[in-house]
Each structure stands twice: as structure tokens, then as C-alpha cells.
Automatic annotation (TrEMBL):
Source organism (scientific name): Bradyrhizobium centrolobii
Residues in JmjC domain copies: 92-254
SMART domains, sorted: JmjC
SUPFAM superfamilies: Clavaminate synthase-like
Residue stretches in coiled coil: none
Protein name: JmjC domain-containing protein
């Protein structure tokens, strides 16, 4: 018999009996008053992360259809980033503090939140790992361009209002299977293109402090800040199912590059299962070879997301 440890009160609330790890879900949370989200605390965090290149920023010139990957280069924030954050209301800037789990103070926060929901998540979606935290500090009327990410994501509003447009991870009208294959195989979002008519197909969440959304791995999303400065946090992780889905897409993407196109099956076909099992065996062999030569392996199964320059 497996004995489950006693669990803290969940800091994120949803109907866990109905939780579907591959469906977009509105949530509520009790983090808005946490002092670690006060702007002065975040400025201190930003100072610690800035020296490691872990702040991403662009101006309010970025739009829904701007390349997510290139937005910081296309629309750079010219002022000092710490000064920008201290004056965020007038700065016309979007800022993201990346991989805050690399900071001891905020790693504790990431663990508090994810530990509080882990048993509920894992009843449906076992294997939580690669924990990450991301804090967004944004001027009024700034936009996070349309994109997808690999992790499952609880995005929670702390201060100000935001509108989040999010689509189901299997909505092929918005992002094709081929685009997801490419994303997983090359971490390239080049086949993901924004169209204004997508808005009508979206879940649209108008978030105030205390509210949020659960976005499964590769759910397309677009975020727009309303009329006041905004603070938002995302808690992210992989599970066995995200790793399986990612590896299957990765193999499909690599096969497509050599002219072998597997028909879309949304992860349910015998062929996809065979691809996954074959890829898993090949990966195990590769990792054994890596270990034998002293190279780092098993990144996706790490407890915390690995940041560049870590
Ligand atoms: Fe995202």
C-alpha cells in the first residue's frame, strides 16, 4: 500500500474531482497578499536575476502577432531594467523574471505552491518535476505575444487586471500538429502564426487578483494587460504525460525533416505509441552512452527547471 504524506492546504483552488490535466481550467488562489510579490521584493529579486541574464523584457510595441521569441530584440527596453521595474506604471514595458526557482527565496515559494497541489495533480497526472516559476511585471496596455510553451502552467493574477486568451492544447484550428512537432523537435515556434479571428475560438479569462487559469502543455495563449500595472506569476512543471507527449512530437518532427510525415492523430494512435516506445528506447541507449562518457543527462526529469547559466 502506498502511504501518502499529509498535505498542506492547496494554495490554488479548482474542482480537483473534475481536474483534467489536458484541459484549460479557471482557478482561484490565495497568493495575492504574499509579501514576496510586493514590488519592492520583486525589485530585489530582479537585481539578483539581472546579473545572470534572467530578465526578459520588451516594450509595449509588441503585439499579439509579434514573434514571441524575438520580441525582446524587435522591441527592446532601452532603459536600465531595474529602473524600468521601479517605474513600471509609466515605463511602457513588459518584463518577465525568468526561472525564479533558481533563487533560494523564490524556490521556496515555488515549492510551497506546487507541494500544496501536488497530490491533487498527481492523482490524475503523475510525475511532477522540472518545477519552475516566472513572474511578470508589466506596464498598462502591454501584450505577451501569441505562443505555446512545453510545461503545464498555473498562471495566477496578483495585481492589476489581465485578459488571457487561451486555446485547448489539441485545438488544431489554432496551432497545427505539424507546428507542435516542430516546436518539440527544434524548440522553434516558426510555424505558429497569429490570426485575429482566433480570438473568437478562445477561452477568454479576465483576471483580477485572486484569479487565474490552468493551461496544459502547449495550450496556445495570448495575454493583454488592462489599464493598470500588473503582476502575474506562473508555476510550471512537467509530468509523465507531458514528457511522453513531447517525445512523441519530437520524433514526428525529426521524421518530417527527412520527408516522413506521420498523419495527425493527436497522440492516440497505435503508430504514435510505437513512435514513443521506440524513441524512449533510443533515448535510454543514448543516455547510457552519455553517462559512460561523464556527460549530463536526464534534464527533463530534474526536480527543478534548469536555467541557462545555472
Ligand atoms: Fe507562455
Amino acid at each position: 500500500m502506498v502511504v501518502m504524506p499529509s498535505n498542506p492546504t492547496p494554495l490554488i483552488d479548482l474542482d480537483w474531482n473534475k481536474f483534467n490535466p489536458w484541459a484549460v481550467t479557471p482557478v482561484t488562489h490565495r497568493l495575492s497578499d504574499d509579501p514576496r510579490f510586493r514590488i519592492e521584493s520583486l525589485v530585489e529579486l530582479a537585481k539578483r536575476l539581472d546579473s545572470k541574464g534572467r530578465i526578459r523584457a520588451h516594450t509595449n510595441a509588441a503585439e499579439a502577432g509579434t514573434s514571441f521569441a524575438n520580441a525582446p530584440d524587435l522591441h527592446p527596453v532601452k532603459n536600465n531594467l531595474i529602473h524600468t521595474m521601479e517605474h513600471i506604471e509609466a515605463a511602457k514595458a513588459w518584463m518577465s523574471l525568468l526561472n525564479v526557482q533558481t533563487d533560494p527565496v523564490y524556490r521556496e515559494l515555488v515549492d510551497e505552491v506546487l507541494d500544496s497541489i501536488r497530490s491533487n495533480v498527481e492523482l490524475k497526472d503523475p510525475g511532477m518535476g522540472y518545477r519552475g516559476g516566472w513572474i511578470f511585471v508589466s506596464s498598462p496596455k502591454t501584450v505577451t505575444p501569441f505562443h505555446i510553451d512545453k510545461e503545464h502552467n498555473f498562471i495566477l493574477q496578483i495585481k492589476g487586471q489581465k485578459t488571457i486568451y487561451v486555446w485547448e492544447p489539441d485545438d488544431l484550428r489554432v496551432v497545427s500538429e505539424r507546428a507542435r512537432d516542430r516546436f518539440h523537435s527544434r524548440h522553434d515556434r516558426g510555424l505558429i502564426a497569429w490570426r485575429e479571428e482566433f480570438r473568437e475560438l478562445a477561452h477568454c479569462f479576465k483576471l483580477s487578483p485572486g484569479q487565474g487559469a490552468y493551461m496544459p502543455s502547449t495550450s496556445p495563449h495570448l495575454v493583454e494587460v488592462e489599464d493598470a500595472p500588473s503582476i502575474t506569476v506562473s508555476f510550471t512543471y512537467y509530468t509523465d504525460s507531458t514528457r511522453r507527449d513531447s517525445l512523441t512530437h519530437k520524433v514526428r518532427g525529426r521524421l518530417a525533416e527527412i520527408g516522413i510525415n506521420i498523419p495527425s492523430s493527436q497522440g492516440a494512435s497505435i503508430l504514435d505509441r510505437a513512435l514513443y516506445l521506440g524513441a524512449r528506447a533510443a533515448r535510454a541507449a543514448t543516455r547510457a552512452a552519455y553517462r559512460a562518457t561523464g556527460r549530463r543527462v536526464g534534464e527533463e526529469s530534474a526536480t527543478y527547471a534548469r536555467a541557462e547559466n545555472a
